[in-house]
Design brief:
38% of the residues lie in helices and 19% in strands. The protein has 437 residues and is of the alpha/beta class. It is globular, with a radius of gyration of 23 Å.
Length: 437
């Protein structure tokens, strides 16, 4: 049943026991495992508790361990035009989930299960969870929220979920409920793992005060590593960010900020990088910055001079300063990709290829979906390949090129035998090209 958020909330009552589920992820590679967090579920938890008063717990398949790792196993092949990709299933295995659900079943059983989805093309693990929960809890109601039901509503309606919820929940007056992981039930369901970091956002109203409240809320949950989610922090909220630094300094509050998104080099003005370092930023991952289809070298030089050459505040550890390179776009050019990769490596010390996929719901998205199917829209499958003149095989080779460059830049020789995915790929590739002696 398709339903909007307001009508859906009306289906719940104080007597309900709601289990929020952050599902597993099926992907070719997933470098940002430690940063996966169901912010929508954490906000919904606060809303349900405050407005309805029902019992709410969380089951997070993607919660990393203390080392930032999530269980991954080889899953199945995806093949596009004779190019095969080995996918992995990331997340806690169902056998372990079943054991944990059994442990709490005598004191707490859900009446309603809510499953989210960060992207529309990560829907396959969601499909597998529905029959599992139907079998485990025959009388439960199941709702789907997030990108999958919002963008692929017709597909979501075929899943057998009781409610396919469209739209965003009005939650700007709520803080993410990180304390939910500490509750007795949720702690057991998530194997008593601790949260490694917290996510905050600038709201349109009272930006400084609201962000400060979010940070204090994280402090109360003993979370000191923080990511600010914003499309362009340096453009949309640079002054507010500095005000937050000042407020935290006055209150003698120390936190570790990590810039994993929304850092557009061209919008960095004056001594902002030095002030970010003083304000607690521990890592910087810069977005791909072009000007007239070429790298904005002045912006990247500023990164180098301010954060490396003339940085007397705090040395940034290897791997915590990097530049993204967008690849897989409709107008990619191999020569430009290689040239930009060297430029980014020289100025940012590390290079991160960032594969492109069409924006959700765009005309490009609809066209590729019609041609390949939703499950082939992962950026790591390069849905725009071939049409832009670059083959999927060449994109695979470029990933290997990036791995070599990063190891060399860090002063290491590449280890072909460490068992990593990159090492295995390189051995296989070199075996094909060189042959047997």
């Amino acid at each position: 049943m398709e339903i909007n958020t307001i009508s859906w909330l009306g289906k719940l009552s104080q007597k309900d026991k709601v289990l929020l589920v952050n599902p597993p992820v099926q992907e070719v590679r997933y470098a940002w495992l430690k940063w996966n967090q169901p912010l929508d579920l954490l906000l919904l938890s606060s809303k349900l508790r405050e407005e309805i008063g029902c019992s709410v717990e969380i089951l997070d398949f993607m919660l990393p361990d203390e080392n930032g790792r999530v269980t991954a196993k080889e899953y199945k092949q995806k093949t596009i035009k004779n190019t095969s990709y080995k996918t992995r299933l990331y997340g806690t295995p169902l056998e372990q989930i079943s054991q944990r659900l059994d442990l709490v079943s005598s004191s707490w059983k859900p009446t309603h299960i809510v499953i989210t989805s960060l992207t529309s093309y990560w829907y396959e693990p969601v499909l597998r969870l529905l029959p599992y929960f139907r079998t485990t809890f025959p009388d439960v109601s199941i709702s789907l929220i997030g990108a999958f039901p919002a963008i692929e509503t017709n597909e979501a309606l075929k899943t057998g979920a009781d409610f396919v919820v469209k739209g965003e929940f009005a939650s700007k007056h709520y803080l993410p409920n990180y304390k939910i992981y500490k509750s007795n039930i949720s702690s057991i369901l998530n194997d008593k793992k601790d949260i490694n970091f917290g996510a905050v956002r600038f709201n349109n109203e009272n930006k400084v005060e609201n962000l400060y409240k979010q940070i204090i809320s994280l402090q109360e949950s003993n979370i000191k590593d923080i990511v600010i989610y914003d499309e362009d922090i340096l453009k949309n909220a640079q002054e507010e960010l500095l005000d937050v630094f000042e407020l935290l300094d006055k209150k003698n509050i120390n936190v570790n900020f990590h810039g994993i998104c929304g850092l557009q080099p061209a919008n960095a003005k004056g001594d902002i990088y030095h002030r970010m370092l003083k304000g607690g930023f521990r890592s910087f991952f810069f977005e791909y910055e072009l000007e007239s289809n070429e790298l904005n070298l002045d912006s990247y030089k500023k990164i180098y001079y301010d954060l490396i050459e003339y940085n007397s505040i705090r040395k940034i550890p290897s791997g915590s300063l990097a530049g993204f390179l967008m690849i897989g776009t409709p107008d990619d050019d191999l020569e430009k990709m290689f040239k930009h990769s060297f430029n980014i490596l020289e100025t940012c010390t590390s290079l991160i290829p960032k594969p492109f996929t069409p924006r959700l719901g765009s005309e490009q998205y609809k066209k590729i979906t019609a041609e390949l199917g939703v499950d082939y829209l992962s950026p790591h499958l390069f849905p725009m390949a071939d049409t832009n003149g670059i083959t999927r095989s060449e994109y695979k080779d470029f990933y290997q090129h990036a791995a070599f460059l990063n190891e060399k830049r860090n002063g290491n020789s590449f280890n072909y035998f460490d068992g990593s995915y990159t090492s295995a790929s390189l051995r296989k590739s070199l075996g094909k090209k060189v042959g047997t002696i």
